[in-house]
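Example 3.2
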Amino acid sequence: MILKKVLNQQRVRSISGSFAFLEHRFLRGGFLSSLTHYELMLYVFLVLAADRRGLSYYSYDRICEVLKIGLNDYLAARDGLLDKDLICFDGVIFQVLSLPAQPVGVRCQPDLHAQGPVAIGQLFKKMLEERS
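Structure, written as tokens:
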């Protein structure tokens, strides 16, 4: 068992003023790993910008400016979060929703390194079959 200890006593976090949070289940329940890079950026931004009910009304141009992303990446991230049932959006106001029971639309990709050369060979075989 790892013994927990404060590493920097002068920099211990404390809550003052407004406060944002992510449920621990976001990590442990597979939600984090289900998001693309841009979806994660947008989700964390919306969590930080939201009030206690999860509401925020930043415009797309301001979000793109703060996150340093283009409009197409923003739209893909927003639509991805909508599809994954993590946010609602009415065209003006965002609402970060409570987490669903489990991640929606998890993209499962094979781990080619874990499966070894057989998986790669199978992929090449399938690609060649599709070209025929």
